[in-house]
Amino acid sequence: MDTRSRxxxxxxxxxxxxxxxxxxxxxxxxxxxxxxxxxAFKKKKQTKExxxxxxxxxAMIAISLxxxxxxxxxxxxxxxxxxxxxxxKEQNDYIVVRNHILARWRSNVEVWLSKGQIKETVSNExxxxxxxxxxxxxxxxxxxxxxxxPLTSPMPELTxxxxxxxxxxxxxxxxxxxxLMSFGFKVIVLEGRNRxxxxxxxxxxxxxxxxxxxxxxxxxxxxxxxxxxxxxxNIELIHNKLLDKVMELRKIMGGFAxxxxxxxxxxxxxxxxxxxxxxxxxxxLDWHLANLEYANAGxxxxxxxxxxxxxxxxxxxxxxxxxAGGNWRLIKSIM
Length: 335
Known about the structure:
Belongs to the flavin monoamine oxidase family. By secondary structure, the chain is mainly alpha-helical.
């Protein structure tokens, strides 16, 4: 990404129609990144056509990550610090820089992306935009999530940001503590158990040097008994349709749905449509409902029909996997 001249980066782009949520093939997106951004990032001489193509590629990557192609997120607007004036050239320049940072992070999500690395590929002319975009993306968890600073990197000195008390030493609590400490906060973590980890608990079985690690929490355990594929597929479809009906109802009911539990609505809909009547069908539906409780860390009878899916936009897809040595290794690496 060459930025040594005024025409290099960012340049005024023609506005496009607003893009809504779209489905995309993650493998194809990975190939696109590898093809256009897979090499070493450095300032190099590029033609105007090359720069426009690169900017377009980075914009597509930003779309795949949930960012609008030619506008700011509501979060960016509320932050009030990313640009001095909305709608002008500075905003357009900021969007190009922001998309570039997202593309850099997406090209290798296994390594911490520093602000210094971005400055190596963007002209000093846009240093204030680099800082604004990088700080926003970092502080809001759009980049550098799932990785830790190198162990050799010292924590920044405490600033006047203040002190924070975190209740719970689970993955979320410890990760939040680590992040806040990197921002200069003084952090105290409170934990009721005599161990950290929360729902993540790995039990070692066997003798010293010869043992197996078994995760007793933080993972889904099945008994290995196969079920009929046709019934399985049908019940999964029914489960998703019931949730779709819940979302339709809450739009109609508005604020009245706040105090109604998700569990009561699902059961009433199940009875109304007469689905999952047989024992096997009901057991399969109950599995989906139990999995929904697991995902929300709460009983369906306690979940609001309005807010049960409020964290869906922040979920990440992908296959389930087992970590060699147990999930405790994640806890240990954060502490």
